[in-house]
């Protein structure tokens, strides 16, 4: 089936975080047509096999307690990971969780103590910091190095921070949101070695794993490093645009860690039951979603090429590189004279109705940046460039 991603349904009125509860500025609302490009979900309808699977389940009028079928659900993702990433897993390495952020909260509590240090690589997906602080642990920043727009890991700093005996965990973002890097096998293997040698457990958030540009190869951290010291969090939610269905996978190969996860997540916190729609969608996505994914990936690749072209032409002072992974554009406005990204995002909203994430919410290194979600029609991506140009002209 051929999908037409230029056409997007109107999402308003669906309790959409992006479209119905989207205004940073509170009561002052933009009166015209809004262009919402903040939260990381796509505005495209998802793959038809997923819609059909949900419709079929919804047709049965009893939505009682549902279990996570321990063969069908892990079976679907195990095949996906084997075929795409050469990652051989047993079904019992894959555990149900309602979401990646939930799993991070569970794992922090199970594998570290109050006051322990947890490393993150800023600028990074801001719920990492919130989850660490809310659990009473300490955020240890290992900032990424921005070398003329190309982000690299600072391994010397990482060794220093990992070797502190109070540092017990690292949360890696791979591919990295917001900077868009897809880490190489060499980078991952080095990082994994540093964690293992220092007794630091590696959690790797790979929720964006399937959304890479066509020439880029994603490598799961567990396959590049020490599987026994790695816990991987992933989901069909970004890949297939079903984040509202609350289903993700926590992948654990270390037998002792499996036991601890089950005790904490299922016995202690009661997180063991999926909802009936999430499980159906999960299976349909991994078993029948690849055609949709290849079409949507091409469309997003093209959006980035058009975005790059338009920025070069209209606002060449903005720093932008097509990200290796994710559908998120990371725009550097510093050379355009913008250092207060919060104020700039507010102006975009008030003057143009363009909603973006200001970069500094991802960490201090994001100052003067904005993050734009390009998983929408090409037209809206190009409209955003005009909005940014207009607001810049008012400075
Ligand atoms: C890196 C990353 N991890 C996790 C999530 C959210 O995952 P979940 O909805 O499964 O908690 C997002 C959503 O934007 C993300 O970008």
Concise summary:
This protein has helices at 48-58, 72-85, 100-111, 127-134, 155-162, 185-197, 221-224, 255-268, 276-288, 290-314, 341-352, 378-393, and strands at 35-36, 94-97, 117-120, 138-141, 145-147, 150-152, 167-173, 201-205, 230-234, 248-252, 328-332, 354-355, 357-358, 369-373. It has 395 residues and is of the alpha/beta class. Pyridoxal-5'-phosphate binds at residues 40, 99-101, 125, 173, 177, 205, 207, 235, 237, 243, 248.
Describe the structure.
With 395 residues, the protein is of the alpha/beta class. It folds into 2 domains: 1-61 and 289-395, Alpha-Beta Complex (Aspartate Aminotransferase, domain 1); 63-288, Aspartate Aminotransferase, domain 2. Helices cover 38% and strands 14% of the residues. It has 12 helices and 14 strands. It has helices at residues 48-58, 72-85, 100-111, 127-134, 155-162, 185-197, 221-224, 255-268, 276-288, 290-314, 341-352, 378-393; strands at 35-36, 94-97, 117-120, 138-141, 145-147, 150-152, 167-173, 201-205, 230-234, 248-252, 328-332, 354-355, 357-358, 369-373. A 7-stranded mixed β-sheet has the order 2-10-9-8-7-3-4, with helices on both faces. A 3-stranded antiparallel β-sheet has the order 11-14-13. Helix 2 runs parallel beside helix 9 (276-288). It is globular, with a radius of gyration of 21 Å. The termini are far apart. The model has no long low-confidence stretch (mean pLDDT 96). The chain binds pyridoxal-5'-phosphate.
């Amino acid at each position: 089936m051929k999908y037409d991603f230029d056409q997007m349904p109107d999402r308003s009125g669906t309790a959409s975080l992006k479209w119905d509860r989207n205004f940073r500025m509170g009561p002052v609302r933009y009166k015209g047509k809004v262009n919402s490009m903040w939260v990381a979900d796509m505005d495209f309808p998802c793959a038809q096999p997923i819609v059909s699977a949900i419709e079929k389940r919804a047709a049965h009028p009893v939505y009682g307690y549902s279990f996570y079928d321990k063969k069908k659900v892990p079976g679907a993702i195990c095949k996906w990971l084997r075929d795409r990433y050469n990652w051989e897993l047993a079904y019992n390495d894959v555990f149900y969780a309602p979401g990646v952020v939930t799993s991070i909260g569970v794992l922090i509590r199970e594998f570290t103590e109050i006051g322990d240090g947890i490393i993150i690589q800023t600028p990074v997906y801001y719920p990492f910091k919130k989850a660490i602080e809310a659990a009473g642990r300490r955020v240890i920043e290992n900032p990424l190095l921005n070398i003329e727009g190309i982000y690299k890991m600072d391994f010397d700093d990482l060794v220093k921070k990992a070797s502190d005996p109070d540092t017990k965990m690292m949360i890696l973002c791979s591919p990295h949101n917001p900077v868009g890097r897809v880490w190489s096998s060499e980078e991952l293997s080095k990082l994994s070695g540093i964690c293992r040698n220092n007794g630091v457990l590696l959690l790797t958030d790979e929720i964006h794993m399937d959304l890479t540009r066509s020439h880029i190869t994603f490598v799961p951290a567990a396959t590049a490093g020490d599987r026994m010291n790695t816990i991987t969090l992933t989901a069909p939610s970004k890949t297939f645009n079903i984040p509202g269905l609350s289903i993700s996978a926590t992948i654990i190969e270390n037998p002792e860690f499996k036991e601890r996860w089950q005790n904490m997540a299922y016995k202690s916190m009661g997180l063991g039951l999926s909802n009936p729609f999430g499980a159906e969608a999960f299976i349909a996505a991994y078993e029948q979603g690849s055609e949709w994914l290849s079409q949507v990936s091409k469309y997003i690749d093209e959006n980035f090429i058009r975005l790059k072209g338009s920025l070069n032409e209209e606002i060449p002072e903005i720093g932008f590189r097509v990200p290796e992974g994710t559908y998120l554009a990371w725009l550097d406005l510093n050379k355009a004279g913008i250092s207060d990204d919060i104020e700039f995002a507010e102006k975009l909203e008030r003057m143009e109705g363009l909603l973006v994430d200001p970069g500094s919410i991802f960490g201090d290194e994001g100052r003067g940046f904005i993050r734009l979600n390009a998983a929408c029609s090409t037209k809206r991506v190009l409209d955003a460039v005009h909005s940014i140009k207009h607001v810049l002209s008012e400075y």
